[in-house]
Amino acid sequence: MTLIQRIILAVLFIIPIIAIGFFLAQGDEEPFFVEQPTSQTGSTTGLPPVSNTDTMPPNHPDPQVQVRAMIKELEQKIAQNQHEFEDILLLGRAYTMVRDYTNAANTYEKALLIEPNSIDVLLPLADVLAVVDEGKLTGRSYDLLEQVLKIDPNVPMALWLMGNAEMQLERPDEAAKYWTQLYYIFPEGSENRMKVSQQLASIGKAPESTNAPATTTIQKTTSEPASSQAIHITLEITPEAQAKLKGTTVFIYAKSQTGMPMPIAAKKFPGEQLTSSITLTEADELMPNRKLKDIPQTKVGIKISKQSDVDNKAELFRTEQALPDSRKVNLVVQF
Asked: Structural domains in the chain?
């Protein structure tokens, strides 16, 4: 199996797509990512950890190009009925990686007919259906997540998404039950446990033992000076663009120039709150194992979309620029 195939099978299974798209129910500016246990019930991947591709050399083939080529190969293989179950999973996740969420959902539906109790199918299907439904986890996604937790009640991503689903249904007490269970799954002192604690605190349900540390952590984060890894971004917004910002969603992000296309750090703003000076720091990093300090070649960008667009259909503007050694970049916004 190639590196890009391992990335698709493993990475897209452990990261909720709606988190990648910054579409958790609360509109959280710092998406939450949870890793799956390596030996969970119902898992069919059983893959070793994926190596970090953020440090791939510049001449490494573009992962997106590789994925699209693989999609054609898998489509042909499945059409000729020369495939295995894993090929269907791989195709679903490949569609997801290129943001073809409708085909991804259809592919997972076919996989579900073959393996109706596979967490490898139920979980990504629930996730991608939520993306298609503009981030809503309250429809069929909810039922699929319930099924996952009946098979294995300790699947971190399912617990996290179910908590978000309950918040969408305005049932914070139910959300707290899922998130509290998730809290105790993670090791004491881990970054994931801290994030869950903060989420519980935000709805007034923090575990008693973590009330004081959670408050201390939040205060420390807001009072610390900018680190050497901070990225300073200035925006030149034309009057025409400024007039169009109301009702839009703005994403400011930093990502690897040569590795995985997902952002390393990001912030999300309503268009009308966009300012001319923004700083990305370690506090804006999206995953514990992907750090700004570890990326030798970084690209900074801004994307402006209508509302909270989860794909590129309503994209109004995007521009990116390589980050110089000064870690200061100027982006011109005009559309």
From this structure: 3-185 (1.25.40.10), 231-333 (2.60.40)
